[in-house]
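Renewal narrative, Specific Aim 1. Our central claim is that a sequence can be written position by position from structural information alone. The example that follows is taken directly from our test logs and has not been curated for this report. It begins with the C-alpha cells describing the chain, in the order in which they were read.
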C-alpha cells in the first residue's frame, strides 16, 4: 500500500493492517507485511488511524473527515460503527480489544491499559496509571515528532518525525538511536508488546513514496558505545557478554534473548 497514515499488528507482528489517504478501506497482511490485500469489502474512502487486538481479530479504524470510529471483530471482514467520534488522532486498544483509547488519550498501550504512551503537541508522554497522570520523556529525538509506538511497559519506543527520520529508544526516551538515513514523512508507528518488532508508515509527499516499513530487533554484537548515555538493555532473561576494548568502551561479543542498544 502507498501513502500510508497508520499501521497496527497482532502481538507477534504476523497479522498487520494499514490505512491511508489513497488506500480504499483497510489493507491487511498475514505474513508480516510481505504481501497485502484489501480486507474491508464493505468500506470505502480513506482512513487515518488503525489499532488492533493482540490476536489481530478486533480492529478499529478512524475516518479522516469526521464521523465515527468503526470496529471489526472478524479481522476486517465486516464492520460496524462504534459510539466514538473520530478526532483524527492515533488510536490504541488493549490486548483483548475491549478498551479503545482515542481523542489523544493514548497512541500505544500495555495489554491491560495500565501503561500508556502518547504524543501531546509533539512531546512524548507516558503514563503508568491508565492515564491518570502523564510524564514527558527525558528528551525527544528531534522536533516535530509525528508518530509513536511503544512496548507494553513503555520503556522501548519508536518515533517518527515528519519530513525527518525514524528513531528508537530502549530507555524510556533518555537517549535515541537513528534508524533511517533519509528524510521521509513518517505518519504512523506500531511496536510489539515486548519491543522485538516494530513497523512504521510513510505518507507520500512530492518525490517521497509512501509505504509500510517493518523491522525485527536483534542483538548487535559489534555495537560500541562512546557516550555517557550509551546503554544496552534487554527483556527479562536476556544475557550479554562484554569485552573491554579500552578507552572506557565495551563491546558485546555474545548474547541471548532480546537486546536493545542506545
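The sequence written for that structure reads:
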Amino acid at each position: 500500500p502507498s501513502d500510508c497514515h497508520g499501521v497496527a499488528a497482532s502481538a507477534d507482528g504476523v497479522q498487520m493492517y494499514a490505512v491511508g489517504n489513497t488506500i480504499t478501506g483497510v489493507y491487511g497482511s498475514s505474513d508480516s507485511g510481505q504481501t497485502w490485500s484489501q480486507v474491508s469489502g464493505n468500506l470505502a474512502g480513506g482512513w487515518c488511524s488503525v489499532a488492533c487486538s493482540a490476536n489481530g481479530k478486533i480492529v478499529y479504524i478512524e475516518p479522516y473527515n469526521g464521523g465515527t470510529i468503526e470496529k471489526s471483530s472478524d479481522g476486517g471482514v465486516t464492520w460496524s460503527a462504534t459510539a466514538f467520534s473520530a478526532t483524527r488522532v492515533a488510536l490504541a486498544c488493549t490486548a483483548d480489544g475491549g478498551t479503545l483509547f482515542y481523542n489523544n488519550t493514548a497512541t500505544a498501550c500495555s495489554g491491560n491499559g495500565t501503561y500508556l504512551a502518547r504524543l501531546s503537541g509533539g512531546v512524548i508522554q507516558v503514563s503508568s496509571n491508565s492515564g491518570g497522570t502523564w510524564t514527558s520523556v527525558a528528551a525527544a529525538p528531534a522536533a516535530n515528532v509525528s508518530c509513536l509506538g511503544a512496548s507494553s511497559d513503555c520503556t522501548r519506543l519508536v518515533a517518527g518525525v515528519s519530513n525527518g527520520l525514524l528513531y528508537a529508544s530502549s530507555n524510556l526516551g533518555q537517549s535515541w538511536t537513528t534508524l533511517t538515513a533519509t528524510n521521509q514523512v513518517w505518519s504512523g508507528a506500531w511496536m510489539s508488546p515486548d519491543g522485538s518488532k516494530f513497523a512504521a508508515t510513510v505518507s507520500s509527499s512530492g518525490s517521497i513514496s509512501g509505504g509500510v516499513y517493518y523491522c525485527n530487533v536483534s542483538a548487535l554484537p559489534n555495537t560500541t558505545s562512546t557516550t555517557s548515555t550509551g546503554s544496552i538493555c534487554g527483556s527479562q532473561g536476556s544475557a550479554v557478554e562484554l569485552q573491554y576494548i579500552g578507552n572506557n568502551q565495551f563491546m558485546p561479543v555474545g548474547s541471548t534473548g532480546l537486546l536493545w542498544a542506545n
